[in-house]
Automatic annotation (TrEMBL):
It is a multi-pass membrane protein. Gene3D superfamilies: 1.10.287.90, Cupredoxins - blue copper proteins (2.60.40.420), Cytochrome c-like domain (1.10.760.10), OmpA-like domain (3.30.1330.60). Subunits I and II form the functional core of the enzyme complex. Electrons originating in cytochrome c are transferred via heme a and Cu(A) to the binuclear center formed by heme a3 and Cu(B). It is found in: Cell membrane; Membrane; Periplasm. This is Cytochrome c oxidase subunit 2. The gene is pal_2. Residues 296-373 form the Cytochrome c domain. It catalyses: 4 Fe(II)-[cytochrome c] + O2 + 8 H(+)(in) = 4 Fe(III)-[cytochrome c] + 2 H2O + 4 H(+)(out). Its main location: membrane. It comes from Paraburkholderia domus. Residues 437-546 form the OmpA-like domain.
Length: 546
């Protein structure tokens, strides 16, 4: 008994320590909380948000009614059960009764649950029917879900014709952990949805890419947005203020970065907002027939990029994960037709921007991408060219990787002409030097061929290394990939090790040529099979990183 007593004390002690630890965590969590969000969730809030519509009030009442009803049933059932166990225990001399059935009991446990279900179903059905009644709306707004933002189009009622995108406004410094988070962290946007108070607002939802869900707890509204389908719901706010929600359907890596913010204004303030928006639209109406300057396109393109592209390709253009870098990429420096086609049609994880951005916005963002960071193409894309591209006529030119080779030929011709005309030796040498640099910049991808079974850098590797160095000089932020190749004969492990050693030898040569080591990426050795020239299995390929 003494041993059992000690064990019991240990158990009690451990339980108390656990309770204290949990209490500490709760208090610590409260201390670290940023505070209540205006129009959104509150710290330590365990119930539904305060309702701002009649539907939300009914949902709140239903919630409390169901909770009380379930609590009464719980207390009644378990109260009778525990009382029976205690009052009719064997130690008091009670014996279990033996009976086969009781018609009375079966009738009772059928009728009583039926009555309970009816009591629950009647008010719930009334509320659900009211939630689906979208007729006689004062304002109709189309809500389109994108990865990862919301698009709002006022299609009927006061404000008809107004449209805009609503994007997360929380600074990247906060989401990246470089600055403390604010009270409205991940719950603030650049353009909130604005509606009038005491007016029935019909919301039509759809999506451009994947399934999203538009949810505002204070309104009692949650409606999925599905690509290719149109759903609708409604709300009628009975108080002014700012109300916050979020996407409630997992829609990709930035799912948490597409909040919903609704501003409810008085009738007069809403009318003023509509007038202001229409004046802005009239003043800032994009003219697709205008010829824009580089400065105009770059300024507009920077805003379009920050709102639509930076979330994946990063503000620095360096890319992240499956989203490739634009800085120094083949897309931003290659043929402009491929760049335009990719933006209009999309590819893999990148959506088509044709239905989302107008011709001026697409022309601006492409011009911005081709002339920002380490990209200095000088290309200008006009809206008229985007319109032509939509109709199948893609713009020409812009292949600066190939143009470098053409420049090299021109430089060589100029060099020969200078020498033939008796130009000074210094001028001819300078022309020849520029020619070589341009030629080397255009020579990528370049191959270094090794002797069979050896990893010593061959003498003719200098041309490939010089070409990479020239490319790095022309594109200071560019990175390079080194791919070592092997054949399928012999030991796969030995071949892979040899390919890696060869790639490291080329890497050391690139470093000696002035290319930073963090700009050199060693790729996994690749195996060549199927009767390919054996020479190709003894090479290391130098390529600009995509």
């Amino acid at each position: 008994m003494e041993i059992l007593g000690k064990e019991a004390m240990k158990t009690i002690k451990r339980a108390l320590m656990g309770v204290l630890a949990m209490s500490g965590l709760l208090f610590a969590g409260a201390a670290l909380a940023v505070g209540d969000v205006p129009g959104g969730p509150a710290v330590n809030e365990i119930n539904l948000q305060p309702p701002a519509t009649k539907i939300a009030e009914e949902l709140f009442s239903l919630h409390m009614f169901m909770l009380v009803l379930c609590l009464v049933i719980f207390v009644g059932v378990f109260g009778v059960m525990f009382y029976s166990i205690f009052a009719h225990r064997k130690s008091k001399g009670h014996k279990a009764s033996n009976f086969h059935e009781s018609t009375t009991v079966e009738i009772i446990w059928t009728i009583v649950p039926f009555i309970i279900v009816v009591l629950m179903a009647l008010p719930a059905t009334k509320t659900v029917v009211a939630m689906k009644d979208t007729t006689n709306a004062d304002v109709t707004i189309k809500v389109t879900g994108y990865q990862w933002k919301w698009g709002y189009d006022y299609v009927k009622g006061p404000g008809e014709g107004i449209s805009f995108l609503s994007t997360l406004a929380t600074p990247r410094a906060e989401t990246d952990g470089r600055e403390p988070i604010s009270t409205t962290y991940l719950q603030e946007v650049d353009n909130p949805l604005v509606v009038p108070v005491d007016k029935k607002i019909r919301i039509i939802t759809t999506a451009n890419d994947v399934v999203h869900s538009w949810y505002v707890p204070a309104f009692g509204v949650k409606q999925d947005a599905i690509p290719g389908f149109v759903r609708d719901t409604w709300f009628k706010a009975d108080k002014t203020g700012t109300f916050r929600g979020f996407c409630t359907e997992l829609c990709g890596k930035e799912h948490a970065f597409m909040p919903v913010v609704v501003e409810v204004l008085s009738a007069d303030d809403y009318a003023k907002w509509v007038d202001t928006q229409k004046q802005k639209m009239a003043a800032g109406q994009d003219d697709p027939n205008k010829t824009y300057t580089m400065a105009e396109l770059m300024e507009r393109g920077g805003k379009v990029y920050a709102s639509n592209c930076a979330v994946c390709h990063q503000p620095t253009g360096k890319g992240a994960g499956v989203f490739p870098a634009l800085d120094g990429s083949k897309i931003a420096n290659g043929p402009i037709a491929e760049h335009v086609s990719l933006v209009l049609k999309g590819k893999n994880a990148m959506p088509s921007w044709a239905p989302t951005l107008n011709d001026v916005e697409i022309a601006s963002v492409i011009t911005y991408e081709r002339n920002s960071w380490g990209n200095h193409t000088g290309d200008i894309l006009q809206p008229k060219q985007v319109l032509d591209a939509r109709n199948g006529k893609l713009p020409e030119g812009g292949n600066h990787l190939a143009d470098a080779g053409a420049a090299a030929s021109g430089a060589e011709a100029a060099s020969g002409a200078a020498a033939a005309s008796g130009a000074s030796g210094a001028e001819a040498a300078a022309a020849g030097s520029d020619s070589a640099a341009a030629s080397q910049a255009a020579a990528l991808p370049a191959n270094v061929y090794f002797e069979t079974g050896k990893s010593t850098l061959p003498a003719d590797a200098k041309a490939a290394v010089d070409a990479a160095a020239a490319y790095a000089k022309a594109h200071p932020d560019a990175k390079f990939t080194l791919s070592g190749f092997t054949d399928a004969t012999g030991s796969a492990e030995v071949n892979a090790k040899l390919a890696k050693t060869r790639a490291e030898a080329v890497r050391d040569a690139l470093k000696a040529a002035g290319i930073a080591e963090d700009h050199i990426i060693l790729k996994k050795p690749e195996t060549i099979t199927g009767g390919t020239d054996a020479k190709e299995a003894r090479r290391v390929q130098i390529s600009p990183a995509a």
